[in-house]
Structure formats: structure tokens, C-alpha cells
Amino acid sequence: MDSDTKSGFDNEVDSKESAFYLDAAKYWEQVPPTVDGMLGGLSSISDIDLKGSQRFLNSIYQLVECPGKERALDGGAGIGRITQGFLMKNFPVVDLVEQDRHFLEEGKKSLKPTNHRGQFFNIGLQKFTPENCVYDIMWVQWVLGHLTDEDLISFLRRCKLGLKPRGLIVLKENLTSSGEVEMDNTDSSVTRPHALVVELIKKAGLRIIKEQKQQRFPSDLYERKKKRNTATANLKHS
């Protein structure tokens, strides 16, 4: 078989992956560009989430080899809730990456009256390639479930190139406690178990240096959100 020719199985896989991304894009196109929309009707947890993230970020800067504080990336930024909520309080420059155009436009609008400095990238993480060696922190939250395993590994590998020498990637994600991957057909996303996330991180050539569970979320969050534990991992070159 010619090396450039795909088998029927490969074409079927590509088709399924395309549908996975297209279905997610269609879902988010119908979601209002509000905090409530970004959090699936759970805007009440936004403040708790941001405070927990700030505490985790503070702990990063207690590390011996901590990153700088010049530039951050908000991956899967939506309307800029995380950028405005706490990243801008820690970094003078914050870039936003978001594939949904109407979310990004709302983010630009809400950040315009502020002292925000940074770029806006209208592209999905599965296609995003950061500039080399520019970020101290790359913060990626509640979006990796919209990437296939292969694209997640590739994304993290590209992120490595975007980090400064002491830069870190922070992943804040929902995890299943069942040990299984759980599919959400509503928004075309998956929630992975901790073991699989760790495996994918290692395949990307990264190692975890710190993990912490988000505290003070409602006890019935799983029933309301259909997702479970939230953990934050700090990643650096292996």
C-alpha cells in the first residue's frame, strides 16, 4: 500500500474524530457567552474555583525552581473568565486561546475596559501551536475532555516548546472516580480517570510535580454536572 494512502479503518477513525470535534463546536455555538454558559449553569462555583486556582498558583511559587511572572496562556479561555478572574492579577501579559469566535469576541469586549495585555487566538487546542519559549505558565482548564487522546498528547508536546526554561503547564480537569472514560454526548466530550491522564502526560514527555484537589465544591456536583473529582497538575519537562 502506498504510504500516503489511508486504509478504510484509518478513514473511519478520521471520520469519527471529525464528528467528535464538529459536534462539540455545534454544542458550544448554542451556549450563551456568559459565566453561567461557560460553567454549564453553575456560575455559583466560579468564585470558589478562582480562589482555589489562586491558592494553587501561590503554592507553585513556593517551589525551589518556580517559574517567572511575566506571561501566561489561558487555554480554552471561553469568554476570559479565568484570565480576568485571576490570571491578570498575577501576570502582566495573558494570551487567550479559544476556538469559539463568539466567546472570544465577548472576551475581548469584557477585557477592553481593563488593563489587559495579550493576544487572542481563535483556534482549537488541537491545532494551536504556541510561540517558542515565551510562557511562564500555561493554564489549561476544563477543556482537555474535548481533545482525543492523540491530540492531547500532541498538544502537550507543542506546549513544552512554548514554555520558558522554568515554565510550567497547569491542567485543571474533572476526573472520573470509576476508573473508566465517561463520554458526554451532550457536549461531545470525555472525562478521563486519573490513571489515564497521568499516562497521557508521560507520553507527552512531561512529569507531574504537584497535584491538588479543588476544595469546597458542592457535594452534589457530580449529579448536577455529570463530572467528578477535579484535580490540578503541574507539569514540566521530564
From TrEMBL:
<protein>
    <recommendedName>
        <fullName>Alpha N-terminal protein methyltransferase 1</fullName>
        <ecNumber>2.1.1.244</ecNumber>
    </recommendedName>
</protein>
<dbReference type="InterPro" id="IPR029063">
    <property type="entry name" value="SAM-dependent_MTases_sf"/>
</dbReference>
<dbReference type="Pfam" id="PF05891">
    <property type="entry name" value="Methyltransf_PK"/>
</dbReference>
<dbReference type="InterPro" id="IPR008576">
    <property type="entry name" value="MeTrfase_NTM1"/>
</dbReference>
<keyword id="KW-0949">S-adenosyl-L-methionine</keyword>
<keyword id="KW-0489">Methyltransferase</keyword>
<keyword id="KW-0808">Transferase</keyword>
<comment type="similarity">
    <text>Belongs to the methyltransferase superfamily. NTM1 family.</text>
</comment>
